[in-house]
Amino acid sequence: MQLLISVVLILNVVTFMIFMLFITSIVIHETHPMEYSIRERKRRRTEKLNTLIKDSDVTCRSKLHMNRHPFYVYVRWLAILAVLRGTKNMLLEEIIFMFLRTLAHKLKNNM
Question: Is 27 inside a domain boundary?
Fold first, then answer.
């Protein structure tokens, strides 16, 4: 009987320790989120841009008040005239998307 009580006590202590480690790892993860590499962040931004612009006219129209075709005509026009060009950190489509979204929704670009 004494052995059974000590085994149950040990199991309770071990379970409590595992639970505390789990809670601690959640708190550490929330306070220090995992940082992504520059390549990963660029890939994620490109995927997000593709879902906003390239997937459908409905999402593009809701974000920019413009269909996809006129948007890409505008991008090509600016690229051909060399008025704007992409940088190493941002694509030309991304720059124009941010500008048009700011105009379309009367937003401020808070960075």
Answer: yes
